[in-house]
Every structure is written in structure tokens, then in C-alpha cells.
Design brief:
The chain has helices spanning 5-9, 20-26, 44-50, 67-70, 80-92, 109-112, 118-135, 160-165, 168-180, 198-213, 235-247, 269-288, 307-310, 328-344; strands spanning 31-36, 58-61, 95-103, 142-147, 185-190, 220-223, 226-228, 252-261, 292-297. By secondary structure, it is α/β, with parallel strands linked by helices. The chain has a single domain, classed as TIM Barrel. It has an eight-stranded parallel beta barrel with strand order 1-2-3-4-5-6-8-9, surrounded by six helices. Helix 3 links the parallel strand 1 (31-36) and strand 2. The chain is globular, with a radius of gyration of 20 Å. The structure holds ligand 9MR. Keywords: Carbohydrate metabolism, Glycosidase, Hydrolase, Polysaccharide degradation, Secreted, Signal, Xylan degradation.
Length: 345
Amino acid sequence: MRFSKAMVGAGLLTGTSAQLHSLAVAAGKLYFGSATDNGEITDTAYRAILDNADEFGQITPGNGQKWQFTEPTQGQFSYTSGDAIAALAKENNQLLRCHTLVWHSQLPSWVSGGSWTEAELTSIIETHISNVVGHYKGACYSWDVVNEALNEDGTLRDSIFSKVLGSSFIGIAFHAAGQADPDALLYYNDYNLEWTGSKSKAVINTVIPAIKAAGAEIDGVGCQAHLIVGSVPSRADLAATLKSYIDAGAREVAYTELDIRFSSLPPTDDGLKTQGDAYADVVGACLDVEECVGITIWDYTDKYSWIPSVFPGSGAALLYDENLEKKPAWTSVSSILAAAATQAC
Ligand code: 9MR
């Protein structure tokens, strides 16, 4: 949908009537999207909102494309879970961010428990990537090629990949992904990259150089943005950190798994307003950086958030509550997008 000054004048771009993806596009971004997962796509009330491409123009499979599901046994590939989400996105005309190829977690034990030589593990990574990326060729806007390779202090996380190959596994993975689908944009994706510190500096000083040294390309840095109400950096700091990845050689950046959780529940009305302001700062930072292409929330409703199971007592992190009702944070996000869309007209 294209937006015109007349539509603005008629109030069609106000925060309460227009929808998040349409507003993001009108504001010059590529998408506003959501993760989803196989267990919940049979929930018809949930689907009615997820399937609305004006609200969510982009989808990420929360689990189905991970190694544990795609190559549970060496050389035996299974795409059932990932394909279900890819088909949903295609049917809805939503962009697909594909997630994820090389990660220490949700890795089958045949990979993590092996005693591999460098040559063997290189071949295992290359075979996995050529098959999985090859299967989804043409369907993925981007791939999170390497996920969470860093510790908080910026050193390389201990994993079977780093143990056997040091930092070279990163370049090996990007090289293989680029060969398997030259049109998909290749991302390094991690959490706590939203502010400048040891971890963000390691992306600039270790990850990006390792990829370039392997003769491969990195297209994007994905800042997962699993944030906490009360501890979200300012819009200016968020934007400056996004820009630092562009200055270091990435072509684009995105918030790839955004949620902003409460550390104690239930949230107060004031807390919900603070959460809304924090969401507006994150979305605002993306608006402030031309190369920030979009924002993905890590599912759209508290009903299906990963947080309570991992951080018991925390939650209420998303834009819709457990009853699929819009929260104040939804209004904050739509308002800031609408304001930017109006300026862009
Ligand atoms: O949302 C995913 C959840 O269903 C899984 O149980 C979990 C397993 O680690 O992974 C979640 O997604 C993660 C994503 O793939 C990478 N960044 C952190 C996300 C939240 O844990």
C-alpha cells in the first residue's frame, strides 16, 4: 500500500487506525514483523492477527529451521517444521527471515558430542548449510548464519565450533551460506548488542574481520534486543550502536528478536507506560538509522512468549497481552511509526 498526503490528512495514518508493518513501510523501513512457531499456528484467533500482512509484514520461524530439527541425524534432513512457517509467510505475502544455521544451542548431540578434526567439522558445517540454505533458496530475505558466538566480555563462546575451529568457523559458515543462496542477506545475530560494550566491540573487531578474512561477505548485524523494562538504553545510544556496525562494514542492521520484559509481574499501569516508552525508543533508534531495515518482535503476544519458561516470574514482554489485546506498548510503537510516516510523506 502506498501512502499519500491525502491519507495523512484523512487520518488514515494515525497510531490507532493504521497497522504496524504498513506504518513502518510508510516511514521508510522494509518491515515490521513477528516470530512465530509451529505449536501455535493452529490457534485461529492468534492466526487472525499474525496473518495480517499490514500488521506483520515479516515472519521468523522461532525454532523450525534450527539444526536440531533440520539435521537431527547426520546427513538426514527434515524440513517439516520450517516449511510450515515458510509456507504461512508465503501465503500471507510476508518476508521470511530465516533462523538460524550455526548456533551452540539446539544443536543435536551428534554434532556437539563428536570429536572432530578441523577438516571434519568444516565439512559438517558446509554440508549442513548447503543443504538447509539450498532447500530454502529464494524463500529467505535473510539468514541468521551465525547466532550468539560471543560471550559478554567479547571473547569467543565455548562451543564445539570454537573448540575445534577457533573463530574460523564464522567465516566458514558465511562462505558456505553465500554459495548456497547468493540472494539471501547474511547476518550475524546476537543478544546484548544493542549498546556499546565489550560484546558489540567484538562484533566489530572479531566477527566482521573473521568473515572478511575468509573472503566472505556479511550483509547484516542482527541485534536480538531481548531487553528489560527499566534497563533499556536511550534512543540516541541505541542508534549510535546500530550505526557502529554500519561503520564497521555491515550493509544493514535490524532488531531481530525484540521483547522488553518485566522482571516482576503483574505490571503496573506506570510500568506499562514505561514499557511503551522503551519500545518507542528502540523503534525510534531504527527509524534514526537509515540502514536499519526493520524490527521483528519475538512473537507478538505474551501468550506465546519464551520468557516465563526461561525467567520464571518475568514476562509480559510483548505488544499484545495473553488475551491477544493490544497493550499500551502497541500504541507507543504505532504512534512513533505514524509520526515518522507522516514526516516521510
Ligand atoms: O523462542 C525460542 C524458544 O521457543 C526455544 O525454546 C529457545 C531455545 O533456546 O529458543 C528461543 O529462541 C531463541 C532464538 O532462537 C535465539 N535467541 C534467543 C531466543 C530466546 O531464547
